Description:
With 102 residues, the protein is mostly helical. Helices cover 82% and strands 0% of the residues. Helix 1 crosses helix 6 (57-68).
Amino acid sequence: YQRRVREAVVSTQSTGVQAKMTEANEFLSENSNDWLSDDLLKGIQKNDKINSKLNNPQFMASFAEFQKNPQEAAKKYGNNPEMNEFIQEFSGLMGNHFHWFS
């Protein structure tokens, strides 16, 4: 479960800030024991919109495309309401977590 969360964090890269995000993702991966807390995992488990997608292999395969080629994935899934809802929910949860975590 933690691996899927870590992968989802890495996948939310915006094409305009990809280099900085790569640097941040390396830091997050190296320090995941510091930020990947029980509170975060509980928050994800309580959020049906996020949890259901993280447990859906087909959805996660689509989401993983953002790691490989963010620009192409954005073109492919940019108008997908399900993907957009997930990214908004996940980004909001992570933003709140890192705000309170810091």
